[in-house]
Amino acid sequence: MSQLSIHNLRVSIADQEIIRGLSLDVPKGEIHAIMGPNGSGKSTLAKVLAGHPDYKVTTGQVLMDGENVLELAPDERARKGLFLAFQYPSEIPGVSIANFLRAAVQARLPEGEELEATDYYAKLYEKMDLLEMDRSFTSRSVNEGFSGGEKKRNEILQLAMLEPKYAVLDETDSGLDIDALKVVANGVNSLRSPNLGVLLITHYQRLLDYIIPDHVHVMVQGRIVRSGGKELALELEEKGYESYETVKDEVGEPALA
Predict the structure, then answer these.
(1) Residue 185 neighbours by CB under 8 Å, 6+ apart
(2) Which one is predicted more confidently, 243 or 21?
(3) Domains of the chain (ranges plus CATH)?
């Protein structure tokens, strides 16, 4: 089946276990939102999916259309169609957005195939218009001197240009005012298709007013403790996460209180 499947994932850093037996399926064509309190492991999950070297996977699998991506280097995961939008995008001084994206798109082409410049720029400008980005952005260094909203728009521009199979959006709403949030959300919504599965990690319900998820999952202490529809996000906004506090069961694993 065409989906991103996480099975019984356990992850540690510096001998501290952060993700504790997490399982989740994100089929193509669906948007799944993960919500949870600070420290629940949401951003750790995003980094592990992307292949961050500081995190140690002790058990479990991450299958992308049946292939275990944990066995692949980060660049191989990206070329096979996995995309991560960072919570805090990095600056790359001296590298223009146009050149950065062109290199990224070229890297995904079959060996020996060259990217046609005319086609590339036509697509780039189309996606920039969609995200209400001025054409002058193409000559600016990646994220250097950008506002929070500009950085997030740039992340979604990368998503639009690379056309991955699965996208992990880590706290895309972080640091955005309401106008920037709407523009970024419109960009994500415009990319919804049967060929893209999205894992949307967020702390607040407000983003889900603009990007309506197919499923919402509550993550607490490194596990998914409840799943539901959009109404679950509204419930969390009203009641918070206190009802999902955990206790240790007989074998020392987190269990719902």
Answers:
(1) 207, 210, 211
(2) 21
(3) 3-91+164-256 (3.40.50.300)
Burial 86-119 (b: 16+ CB within 10 A, else e): bbebeeeeeebbbebbbeebeebeeeeeeeeeee
131 — pLDDT class (breaks 50, 70, 90): confident
Provide CB contacts within 8 A for 39, sequence distance 6+: none
Residue 74 token pair: 């980060």
